[in-house]
Amino acid sequence: MDTFGFVIHPLDMNDVIRFDPKAEGKRIELVSKVLEWMPANNQSHITGIRSKTGKEIHGYFLAASFLPHQFIQLPREKVYQKIINAGKIAESLGAKIIGLGGFTSVVGDAGHTIAENLNIAVTSGSSYTIATALEGTLAAARAMEIDPKEATATVVGATGSIGRVCAQLLSREVESLTITARSLSRLKTVAEAVHEFSGKRPRVTTDLHSALLGADIVISASSSGGGIIKPISLRSGAVVCDVALPHDCSREVADMRDDVLVIEGGLVEVPGPVHFGTNFGYPPRIALACMAETMILTLEGRFENYSLGRRIEIEKVMEIQHLAQKHGFKLAGFRSFNAPVTQEQIEMIKGNVKQLRQKSKISIS
What we know:
The chain is an alpha/beta fold.
């Protein structure tokens, strides 16, 4: 039976407490130091992944336990070494490919150094993350009665490996597009790539607030560390697909904006009687798309470096989406702020939007 590995790490203190309840109440500085000392380790055995073709595989979650800020602030060689050590554990367990989750996929050169130091294939999972983000965004727009062909869209974090391709693909689906990130020069490069791909010239801005104000559809995929999208910036009736980990949408959006639909990007239902062996906060059989990409490549016997670096190939996005369908992976419905989104909630949001727009018409008249 073919074997894969996938590297995980805690995204916040809630994740740390989920794995070790004794961490509750501890200062983040102390927890960070403990995580810094903690070696890479085998977190759990994943069983029961079964393709529509009948093939079954298994795998392992390997922990490279840093918090997001540590991936950014600690010496790069120290971060690399812990991820590589997790990969070496996967090798010893018989894995033929390993996936990089969370910040392990974006640190440094986005996987190339890790791949150079391992004897097995490596993928970031970004190709399938992009495919599911676009699919989920368009499905959510339709659920909110937004016609993408008449919609204005914004991609946040458009200079990143995921945001860049999302911007290219989304530009073919919408009337107009704005792209935003921190670097204006890099945004201009992405704008040229979008124009070459779809013939459309996106609006470019480093002002996140102005980029969001007029958007009907938002895909957010920054590596900001979370919480950059605030309630005041979102248009009533907007759909936001938050692909970033930690999430770009602040918790205040859920508390204050009952007239927008926020969905988590990249959540996938895995085929078979799956048992992950650990709790990373999702319902049974639900995994992140980056995890699923590693599983799909294993089922397909494609033990090769796949989604690495800052330039994800659109052809690979299309290919992995086709392979996912072949093996029975599919979107896991809508989730928002770690909870499922029901049809009743969507209808309530649409009702709130109509009420606000009606009040606005009355006040203008």
